[in-house]
Amino acid sequence: MISKKSSRRGFIKKAFGSALATAALPTVLLGNDKRNVVELEAPHHPEKNYAANDQVNVAVIGMGIMGFNNAETTVQIPGVKLVAACDLYSGRLEHAKEVYGKELFTTKNYKEILDRKDIDAVIIATSDHWHDRISIDAMNKGKHVYCEKPMVHHLDEGEAVIATQKKTGKVFQVGSQRVSSIVTLKAKEIFESGIIGDLVLVETWNDRQGPNGAWQYSIPTDANAGTVDWDSFLGDAPKIAYDPVRFFRWRNYQDYGTGMAGDLFVHLFSALHAITSSKGPNRIYASGGLRYYKDGRDVPDIMTSIHDYPATDKHSAFNLQMRVNFVDGNHGGERLRLVGSEGIITVGWSSVRVDRSPTPKAPGYGGWDSFNTFSEAQQKEYEKWYKAKFPAAKPKMIDPGMEFKEPENYNTNVDHHLAFYNGIREGKPIVEDALFSMRAAGPALASNKSYFEKKIINWDPETAKLIS
Ligand SMILES: NC(=O)c1ccc[n+]([C@@H]2O[C@H](COP(=O)([O-])OP(=O)(O)OC[C@H]3O[C@@H](n4cnc5c(N)ncnc54)[C@H](O)[C@@H]3O)[C@@H](O)[C@H]2O)c1
Predict the structure, then answer these.
(1) Distance in angstroms (rounded) separating the CA atoms of residues 10 and 32
(2) Phi/psi zone of residue 360: left (φ > 0), alpha (ψ -120 to 50 degrees), beta?
(3) Residue in 60, 65, 256 to alter for ligand 1 test, most ligand atoms within 8 A of Cβ
(4) How many whole angstroms from 144 Cα to the centroid of ligand 1?
(5) What is the atom index within ligand 1 of the atom nearest the CA of 176?
(6) Where do the domains of the chain lie, and which CATH numbers do they carry?
(7) How many other C-beta atoms lie within 10 A of the C-beta of residue 78?
(8) I need a labelling partner for 30 at 20 to 30 A (CA). Which of 192, 298, 353, 390 fits?
(9) Which pLDDT tens digit goes with each residue over 384-406?
(10) Residue 213's CB: how many other CB atoms inside 10 A?
């Protein structure tokens, strides 16, 4: 039980008192369901001019879908210059030059990037099985690292990444961008106000519908053993003959990817941990199956898991239900619902909502209750007794709820990349550092372990390690 009564009262007054007086708030709109909707303020990023010799030179390693997305985001940060790109498929290197100019240095060998003295930082957006190796090599070569989620491919790889970050002192951030989102920060503020009382349950899901969402990405017609460096792609994975399906749809295979848990659970864990300051669960069980996309993949297309979170000084003990369904039958969608004794915080991709309904202290009587079965004399006696026992019982509070939305052009990715460069330039602490990221990747990968081994996994959220 956490006592935050004074801050809770302050927040309730601020959020609900003022929002009810809609006329007083210029940004308040009244939603269809009579909820009060407030547009969040995007952070102000002051224009900064950096001299040519004060640029952060960055390279992207893994110039696929997320590599291009990260490149596009990162060049929006003042004082950041994209100078090189590395990928294993020629077409993507060609396209990198088409987008960023012929002078962009391109290579299929990431070590050529790490050897360049003029490169300060790398963004790693390869398939999951290369994350740990390239992160470690890059930090050891003096580069700051922005690595895509999940931080590692296997549970036993986390320790070395955390240790290398500590040893080298380089800035290291993982790419679950919602950790830096204004929606997440607002949800955190709401949660920390104590407005929903004791957290008892979290329900979260990320559902999709359609082949692209289920990772059946396009395969270029010019892909062949000449345009794709298959041997380099394999890395520490089992040696097998060139297979374009495995290369372009690597998420479907455990040898290179981390399935639904590593791909999507990890985002949900990162957001949950950022909001609640939790370090993770201590008990994990997952189930699911391959129901629809029987295309040769060796990972499920529906996965559901339950996680027990122990109490900490930041939150009460709670249970977490997590789900990813690629056969959603309803256009997909995602939510993170924090259920407390006095209300619910519902976090979506671009908004957060809070609804209050405090659990009454007085039990009430009548309705679906044993009271009606008592003799008439006993009912009278009981009423007398009840009124003496609960004299101040108030009717249930009806609350209009409150929603905070991102402004239209807000881009979470930009704020996440900015956090990385603020770490490099100003030494600002990185929230999604190696330990935070292993505390998110760990329970996700442990969910895979539970699913494949059909057993409950015990996890130490403090050290981010398996308990055997
Ligand atoms: N943060 C997010 O929202 C988000 C979204 C999508 C993907 N991701 C992450 O980004 C990463 C990449 O995903 P994607 O969808 O872009 O995959 P992708 O297949 O489109 O791109 C991966 C690229 O990595 C390259 N690659 C693999 N091994 C390499 C190596 N050793 N050296 C150089 N290049 C190598 C491949 O050639 C490929 O082009 C994954 O880890 C994924 O989880 C994050």
Answers:
(1) 28
(2) beta
(3) 65
(4) 18
(5) 1
(6) 5-43+186-360+396-412+434-467 (3.30.360.10), 52-178 (3.40.50.720)
(7) 14
(8) 192
(9) 999 999 987 665 555 668 999 99
(10) 15
Closest CA to 63 of 99, 82, 40, 88: 88
Q: How many CA atoms lie within 13 A of 463 on its CB side?
A: 10
Reported as a single tens digit per residue, the pLDDT across 189-217 is 999 999 999 999 999 999 999 999 999 99
The binding-site residues of ligand 1, defined as CB within 6 angstroms of any ligand atom, are 61-67, 86-89, 92, 110, 125-128, 130, 148-149, 175, 177, 232-233, 235, 250, 263
Q: Where does 125-257 have alpha helices with state H?
A: 131-140, 158-168, 182-192, 230-234, 244-248
Rounded to whole angstroms, the Cα distance separating 396 from 437 reads 41
Amino acid residing at 24: A
Whole-angstrom Cα distance, residue 12 to residue 4? 12
Q: What would the two tokens of residue 235 be?
A: 């890395």
What gap in Å lies between CA 272 and CA 205, rounded to an integer? 12
Phi, psi for 247 (deg, rounded to 5): -70, -50
The number of residues in the chain equals 468
Tokens 């130490």 — which residue? 460
